[in-house]
Amino acid sequence: MISVSNVSMRYGGKILFEDVSTTFQPGRRYGLTGPNGAGKSTFMKLLSGELEPQKGTVVKPKKLGVLKQDQYAFDRFRVIDTVIMGNLPLWTALEERERLYEKPDLTDEDGMRLGELEGVVAEEDGYTAEADAATLLDGLDIPEPLHARKMGELQGGQKVRVLLAQALFGNPAALLLDEPTNYLDLESIHWLQEFLTRYQGTLITISHDRHFLNAVTTHTADIDYQTIITYTGGYDDMVLQKTQVRSRIESENSQREKKIAQLNEFIARFSAGTRASQVMSRKKEVERLQTTELARSNIARPYIKFEMKRPSGKTPLEFKDVVKGYGGHAVIQGFSASLQRGQKIALMGRNGVGKTTLIKALLKNAPGNDDPDVAIDSGAVEWGHEAQVGYFAQDHRGSIQNGTTAEEWLHAWEPQASREEIRGLLGQMLFRGEEGAKPTDALSGGEAARLMFCKLMLQKPNILVFDEPTNHLDLEAINALNVALQKFDGTVLLVTHDEDLLDEVATRIWHFTGDGKIEDFIGPYEEYKTAAVGR
Ligand SMILES: Nc1ncnc2c1ncn2[C@@H]1O[C@H](COP(=O)(O)OP(=O)(O)OP(=O)(O)O)[C@@H](O)[C@H]1O
Ligand SMILES: [Mg+2]
Questions:
Q1: Is pLDDT above 70 for 256?
Q2: Taking the CA of residue 201 as centre, how many other CA atoms within 13 Å lie in the half-sphere pointing to its CB?
Q3: Residue 442 C-alpha to ligand 1 middle, in angstroms?
Q4: CA of 38 to the centre of ligand 1 (A)
Q5: Cα–Cα distance between 281 and 278 in angstroms, integer?
Q6: Confidence check: pLDDT of 293 > 80
Q7: What dihedral angle (degrees, nearest 10) is formed by the CA atoms of 59, 40, 412, 402?
Q8: Average pLDDT over residues 224-247
Q9: Which has the closest alpha carbon to 527: 506, 499, 501?
Q10: In testing the pocket of ligand 1, which one of 41, 69, 471 has its CB within 8 Å of the most ligand atoms?
Q11: What is the predicted pLDDT for the residue at 353?
């Protein structure tokens, strides 16, 4: 069991939650919900012990398995090591032991330290660690040959499996997962659902995917109104019950506002008169009511609108026989196409079929692209007259460097833009007031994505290249993005697993069917599906 007592967290003027007490029981599977920036990842870090609460206490079992929101964090480590890092004390002991053994001559002190380290390794089952990790990986369908590879070489679906193995390493009593379905295709999500419903301990998972939550969770802990309320049932059940709670809170709020208005009226009317003491007490009452700020719902919709500085030529991009592969294996085997201005192309297909690879290959020499991590093996790629590319990478978090603020980072892209313009854009994307001064390191997953949209809205390119933009976004933001992409007059290349986006945005489909093959269909997704049935 995990229990939380009187926990409060706030950053600057923003209260995430105040005085929260709740428990998470074994055998139950909890969804942790709330819009972008509500404090879900923060709360999970409190549960795992990565972060100390500003007030209150958390009691948790000794061994917890954690899957963090940043799935790229382990890219430079080997797969098998990544799993063993699930037991951090063991991993650090193993590392230090290795360093000591590598020294040419050991001092007495080193010898003593080695003795201590051997103790830790033995206690943490270190002698079977590699074998245990390998067994877990095999069970999660990561075959032996991948175990020695770097995490960065794996594709999304495989990465999540390895990170799950890391979380499960050492049989934890509770499993904490932060947005595990990001970067997964539908089949992998179904696999994960199956897997999680069989987990026996306490499961807590953050997700913006309501289908996933409905399939997996038995309870829902929702962050809103500066508190956390636990409902019975999955996401849809929560929404139903929450509407009732919400109308109660909102009527309390409006009663309070009415009360304040009445008191103020009394004060205004009699302040010059003889009822001095009554006016005084009413003033105090107003102060009291006003200082306890009204808890408002944190659900809000950003306003996304993509405009172009100027349109591109009729054929913004043309390419021939593009081949791109890794280590002798051609992922894209000679694909050619010509894009018409205004086309909205959806790239669809399972994890690992080469969608991101093709995008990156095409971005070579793209005007306006600043991602250096692109290349092509052979073929010809030609960007057309006046083409300007705005790129939203799958790992977009990496394109926002740490150590600056949201506002500074954004302004640096267009130094001649006025402060008002920058602030206006930030406000549209829900960074209101002092929120723009937030350090970039602190941005939540969804906030980082919203800041990337700000950059594109500022630069106004005429070709948008989006690689899974809805990962990390909450429902409101996904809807806003959907509308913005529909209304955009330029050309779009969009990788997505989101059925609504496919349905409502795409006017052309590139379906990656595997083995390096890509079907090119001009027309909406609906027609493509019908045509595919006829084949
Ligand atoms: N060190 C910090 N300084 C200032 N603000 C912070 C800091 N750490 C977190 N925040 C803010 O706290 C809020 C909650 O962040 P958190 O990452 O927990 O959100 P989240 O609910 O996980 O959102 P998402 O769905 O986008 O992942 C955000 O507005 C974030 O910017
Ligand atoms: Mg988060």
A1: yes
A2: 21
A3: 6
A4: 7
A5: 5
A6: no
A7: 30
A8: 92
A9: 506
A10: 41
A11: 86
Q: What is the pLDDT of residue 183?
A: 85
pLDDT at 271 over 90: no
Cα(448) to ligand 1 centroid in Å equals 10
Question: What is the DSSP code (8-state) at residue 525?
Answer: H
In the reported structure, the alpha carbon of residue 478 is separated from the centroid of ligand 2 by a whole-number distance in angstroms of: 15
Q: Which of 9, 431, 447 to mutate to test the pocket of ligand 1 (most atoms within 8 A of CB)?
A: 447
Question: d(Cα 434, Cα 411) in Å, to the nearest integer?
Answer: 15
Question: Which residue has the least CA distance to atom 13 on ligand 1?
Answer: 37
Ligand 1 atom showing the smallest separation from residue 449 Cα: 26
Which atom of ligand 1 is closest in space to residue 223's alpha carbon? 21
For residues 44 and 235, the answer to whether their CB atoms sit within 8 Å is no
Q: What is the C-alpha separation between 263 and 288, in angstroms, rounded?
A: 12
Decide if pLDDT at 534 tops 80: no
Neighbours of 361 (CB within 10 A): 23
In percent, how much of the chain has pLDDT > 90? 70
pLDDT interval class at 374 (50, 70, 90): low
15 alpha carbon, closest ligand: 1
Sign of the C-alpha dihedral computed for residues 286, 292, 293 and 295 taken in this order: negative
Closest CA to 1 of 167, 174, 198: 174
Q: In this prediction, what percent of the chain has a pLDDT beyond 70?
A: 98
Q: Residue 293 and residue 362: Cα distance in Å, rounded?
A: 51
Neighbours of 292 (CB within 10 A): 8
Cα–Cα dist 220/526, whole Å: 34
List ligand 1's pocket residues with C-beta within 6 A: 11, 16, 34, 36-42, 69, 438-439, 442-447, 472, 474
User: Considering the chain, what is the average pLDDT of its residues?
Assistant: 91
Contact 396, 452 (CB under 8 A): yes
Of 21-25, 392-396, 439-443, minimum mean pLDDT range: 392-396
Confidence category of residue 376, pLDDT binned at 50, 70, 90: confident
Distance 184 CA to ligand 1 centre (A): 23
Q: Report the DSSP beta bridge partners of residue 535.
A: none
Protein residue with least CA distance to atom 10, ligand 1: 442
**What's the CA-to-centroid distance between 80 and ligand 1, angstroms?**
31
Task: Write the DSSP assignment of 467-504 as a string of letters.
Answer: ESTTTT--HHHHHHHHHHHHH--SEEEEE---HHHHHH
Pull the structure tokens for residue 372. 């250096």
Cβ atoms within 10 Å of 170's Cβ, excluding its own: 20
- pLDDT tens per residue across span 436-495: 999 999 999 999 999 999 999 999 999 999 999 999 999 999 999 999 999 999 999 999
